[in-house]
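pasting for ref
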Amino acid sequence: MLSSKYVNMADLKSSHLNPPPSRLLAEVENAEKRQEFVEISELLFFAYRDFTSDPDAILADFEFGRAHHRIIHFVGRHPGISVAALLDILTITKQSLARVLKQLTLEGFIEQKTGSRDRRQRLLHLTPEGIALERRLSTPQHERILHALSETTPHERATFRSILLKMVNKETHAKITKLFASGHIT
């Protein structure tokens, strides 16, 4: 059983839980194509499992879960991100974010600052301890990605990136593309 430190199904916004039925899966009739589809699905599972295994071990030392990791990642990548923007990225409930954010703040990994233009805004920053934890969590993941990319061609990397983007819900494509182009979240 998962503890409350993990985001559970009730924490997720429901629009992402029930995608519309697709004819694509039904169209994969050819056994060879179906086998390729299943193998790619499983490879994605195994890649994700291994990609998250090192940070999971580090998080366990703090009794943190993946929700903590995601928050630390995005606050570290986008210092001064608003709570509203973080909610938009994570697509979790306010209650779930508040619970995890409170713990990260109390334990000294994140600090909240009031917005200079809008005093109602809560802007999030990693503390020095948060920066150190973010580096510990991301280093093994970056090394895993760099190792994999070192064995690929530029064309293979572009194809992989394109496939990952196509796996993201279409309504967020423009936001993600803008995020990568600008380097920050609006």
